[in-house]
Amino acid sequence: MRPSRRRHLTAASGFVVLTLLSACGDKELPQNALDPKGPEAIRLDNLIRPVFLIAAAVFVLVEGLVVYVALRFRRRSDDEAPKQVHGNVKAEIGWTIAPAAVLLVVGVFTVFTLFDISETPAGPGVVRVTVTGHRWWWEYEYPDHDVVTANELHIPTGQKIAVTLLSEDVIHSFWPPKLAGKVDVVPNRVNKMVIEAKTPGVYHGQCAEFCGLSHANMRLQVIAHTPADFERWVASNAASAAIPDPEDQPEAAAGAAAFRAKGCASCHTVKGYAAGQVGPDLTHFAQRDTFAGAIFENDERHLRAWLRDPPAEKPGSIMPDLDLTEDEISDLIAYLDTLK
Amino acid sequence: MATVLEPTVTPVPVVVDPGVLKRPKNPAGVWSWMTTVDHKRIGVLYGVTAFVFFLLGGIEALLIRLQLAQPNGTVLSADAYNQVFTMHGTTMIFLVVMPMSAAFFNYLVPLQIGARDVAFPRLNAFSYWTFLLGGIFIYSSFIFGGAPNGGWFGYAPNTSITFSPGHNIDYWVLGLLILGIASTAGAVNLIVTMLNMRAPGMSLMKMPIFTWMTLISSFLILFAMPVITIALFLLMFDRNFGSNFFNTEAGGNPVLWQHLFWLFGHPEVYILILPAMGMVSEILPVFARKPLFGYPVMVISAVAIGFMGWGVWVHHMFAVGLGPVAVSAFSVSTMFIAVPTGVKIFNWIGTLWGGSLKLSTPMLFAMGFVAMFTIGGLSGVTHAVSPHDRQQTDTYYIVAHFHYVLFGGALFGIMGGIYYWWPKIFGWLLSDRIGKLNFWTWFLGFNMTFAPMHLLGLQGMPRRIYTYDESLGLQALNMVATVGSFVIAFSTMVFMYNIWHSKRNKVLAGPDPWDARTLEWSIASPPPVYNFAEVPEVHSVDDFWHRKYTEDGAGRPVRKPSAAETAGGSAAAADGADGADDHAGHDDHDHGHGIHLPSPSYFPLVAAFGIFVLGYGMVYGRDAGVNYVLAGLGALILLVGLYSWGMEPSAEPEDPDDVVLSASPDPADAVLGAAGTAGALGPGAAADDGGGEADPAGGNGS
Fold first, then answer.
1. What is the DSSP string of B617-649?
2. How far apart are CA A4 and CA B102, in angstroms?
3. How confident is the model at residue B590 (pLDDT cuts 50, 70, 90)?
4. B9 backbone φψ class: left, alpha, beta (φ>0; ψ -120 to 50)
């Protein structure tokens, strides 16, 4: 729908659509589904906008009628004796068929779009990603690139991303609203979805299916790069982590030792150093902007608070309070900082 | 089976050999309520209990809104929030809207069809006590270590013992099973009542529309409850006995839970809304002085909704990944269920069109229903656009949608129903002036709370989150919603003040304060215990209206000259002037004498208590050292209750009047009189009595 026409229709169709549209394009709403930024999400948006307009028209009609009858037929004298109308078959058939006809049209477009978006993309430009939901964070694996990361999904712009959705525990739902509608992440089930971003940027989202205590803290980001930048990101992330040299980086080296001694390594993978399977892969942790389900900024202050007592920072966190000393925490932060 | 009703409404049981199984005889006081089998008292009990739960569910709603008023709220912890939102949903659905509807079903159905009670009065009492104890059971979890926290939909495998090892979910499972027993028993009772005990001449297509909606709703309960019961049983077996229906680690299928839950859950939506539609369909014609526009179409469309309601459940699961074929089918079915719903809305407007609208409080709520339910219906159609539903589902858009259906719909209808039938039930009117304040604050608060949620959902706020980040930009609308929720709380207080105020400044209603159309208005307010002194004979829909009015050549109503006299049909007109508190006025003596009413009984309460104990037994049964001993005790109490129920004596086995009524040549007399006569009521009595078949001569009461 062209913008000028859109504006024209908006003016005519009242408050609901007006507020809906006024919300579009608002930079302050990072999860606004009314502001689609990729072809998949735009396809859904194109389908729903006319439906919202029809709904708005019916809304105006019905509410208008209710207000009209309330004013027009209000009892003015107790002697009023209105004509006793018991029904009108023609009218009733009319208001059965008319909505059915409108819905039939909507139904046809719905079914076509549905089959469109259900196609699994294939071909050279398609990037495959396996998304695994955990309580309460996301794991991303790029099977063609030997890269594993968490919470921040990196994708190239202008290319379709074929996402395979798996769950490690309960049902989650992967939802980056500006790029696609949500698809549930169900244990013992392999679900598929497609996302695509037109322009580079950070697209926010979060888990949309109630998954227990920290459901609210299971957020995600999709970071879209130009294809060239994406290639660079893949290359840097496929590499193993360097082990800090005790001479050059004594603190980080102590942190690396603590990483093993305190049990971090039994849950987290750092390629080339640790191979834990429970928590997020930390091989390139320092590249990430956020951690713990994308709820905290990856900076010293948040890391320190987190390492002191994870469940206090994020209810239900499976990562336990390890009773670390402040020195150990400093060492670990120094070590994490080397995982570029 | 029967007790002669003395003028003072004192059942005087003449027990031959009471033994241990005496029928209770307290005419007043707490015990009279604990043992009552009178459908009107049970209706009031349902209503009062549901209102108390409404206040609890409302407090939970306010806690939710306080927590979400600002980003990173700290009013509730994550765990407390999950308990509160789970209990809010569970409460409002199972402990408020369903029992509030049951209150109206119980109170009104026998009155609307010209019967003296429901078919199985003791089963009716059993339904109520099971519901009350089921509600207390679930709420007791707050005291015993934590309320259910898996959402009202309890998705597997989050509710499995692996991910929810505490007893929170057990309380939810057992609580809903207990409430399901109450609902199912109630539905059976009402269906039998409506199908078998209508006044002579009242064919199905002459039934009042509210009774019709009750009938459809009851059938939906009858068929939907077994589905959720199965799902809950499977979950209970997973949790207690190590089965693996939903246990994903052992290959269980969590989607099976969703199918079972929503196959119940969607008809449940119509169980919640149809009664309110019935109330609105009664109120609009009365206050418009016009008959319901297209009565047959209203009935047929509701039947159509009842059938189609079973074919749309997958629209709750469009994001599950069921594939485009399944999703297409359910998209289309979901779209087309809007058609009969839309027909109803236009027929309601047709009812108002050209009428003489008196905008009293019941009418405001009923028109508010039409206006608000329409919004819920429209947003419902947008879910059927399944590709885009993947943006909407599990967000606040859905929260907005179903509150427009269940609050803007069901609760508006119920509030209208309360204001409308209050004078019938208590004999005095609620203040219309305060009622209007109640309505407008209710309307304002409702829209302030829930309209912004449409936008919040589309702007990316998922449901069931205890916190959201400031960066999402959602705070302004959340704050509006929170303020709105407190306006609703204020409105609720206005309602309670109205009851208090109107009770102190009683305006007696008389039998027919609204110039209404259905049979309940032909008898005194409040109705005498036996309801109808003489069994009414029905000739048309809105029979009572047609006793009062004819239509002139232009189709306008003309009051019959003798209307005032005939209005009551019997004792009612005289009785109405008699005073409100007097359940059976003095004039009733002659009429009331010889009408047989079921005797009160202890045993429905005993049986319900057994189920209550059994529930705790199952919750704690898997704990070491507990081993289902308590469950066994509960089962024993239940068996004793049921056995005694079956075997307790009829209050008056051989009353001469029984014979008179049973032998009456008029079959209607036989059926209606037999609200109390085992012999005449036949299969109904046998079913209720349990022991009735073994002891056909005596009957067992109720």
1. HHHHTTSTTTTTHHHHHHHHHHHHHHHHHHHPP
2. 53
3. very low
4. left
d(CA A221, CA B478): 23
Q: What is the pLDDT of residue B685?
A: 37
A193-238 per-position pLDDT tens digit: 999 999 999 999 999 999 999 999 999 999 999 999 999 999 999 9
Chain B hits for A216, CB-CB cut-off 8 Å, are: 78, 462, 464-468
Question: Which residues does chain B have within 8 Å of residue A29's beta carbon, measured at their own beta carbons?
Answer: 459-460, 472-474
Amino acid at B502: S
User: Do the Cβ atoms of B254 and A110 come within 8 Å?
Assistant: no
pLDDT more than 70, % of chain B: 84
Mutate to test the interface with B, among A46, A60, A182 (most CBs of B within 10 A): A182
Write the CB contacts of B561 (distance below 8 Å, at least 6 apart in sequence).
Answer: none
pTM recorded for the entire structure? 0.89
Work out the angle at residue B20's Cα, subtended by the Cα atoms of residues B19 and B26, and round it to the nearest 5 degrees.
Answer: 100
CA distance B245 to chain A (A): 13
A293: tokens are 């389900």
pLDDT band at B569; cut points 50, 70, 90: very low
Rounded mean pLDDT, A244-272: 94
Stretch B355-383: mean pLDDT: 97
B152: closest CA among B79, B227, B93? B93
Taking the CA of residue A105 and the nearest CA in chain B, the distance in Å comes to 11
pLDDT tens track for B508-525: 999 999 999 999 999 999
Q: What is the pLDDT of residue B141?
A: 97
Query: Tokens 């529309």 — which residue?
Result: B209
CB B642 within 8 A of CB B601: no
Share above pLDDT 90 across residues of chain A, in percent, rounded to a whole number? 87
| Alpha carbon of B350: minimum distance to chain A alpha carbons (Å) | 8
Select from B333, B337, B315, B391 the least CA-distant residue to A49.
B391
Q: Does B295 sit within 8 Å of A85, measured CB to CB?
A: no
d(CA B98, CA B304): 21
DSSP-assigned letters across all residues of A154-209:
EEETTS-EEEEEEESSS-EEE--TTT---EEE-TT--EEEEE--SSSEEEEEE--S
DSSP H or E stretch at residue B4 = strand B3-4
Determine whether B200 is exposed, middle or buried from the number of CB atoms within 10 Å of its CB (0-12, 13-18, 19+): middle
* Contact of B172 with B86, CB cutoff 8 Å: yes
Task: ipTM value, please give it.
Answer: 0.92
Q: Which residues pair with A291 in a beta bridge?
A: A296
Assess contact for B250 and B478: CB atoms under 8 A: no
Asked whether the beta carbons of B690 and B646 are under 8 A apart, the reply is yes
- Tens digit of each residue's pLDDT (9 = 90 or more) over B437-485: 999 999 999 999 999 999 999 999 999 999 999 999 999 999 999 999 9
Q: Counting one residue from A and one from B, how many pairs have CB atoms under 8 Å apart?
A: 305
Question: Cα B357 from chain centroid?
Answer: 28
Q: What does B407-449 look like in DSSP terms, one character per residue?
A: IIIIIHHHHHHHHHHHHHHHSBPPPHHHHHHHHHHHHHHHHHH
Token digits for A226? 């130009």
Residues A224, A199 contacting (CB under 8 angstroms) = yes
Find which of A16, A170, A175, A318 to mutate to test the B interface (most B CBs within 10 Å of its CB): A170
pLDDT over 70 percentage in chain A:
92
* Residues of A in Cβ contact (< 8 Å) with B465: 206, 215-216
Question: Chain B: residue nearest A174 by CA?
Answer: B319
Residues in A closer than 8 angstroms to B471, CB to CB, are 30, 204
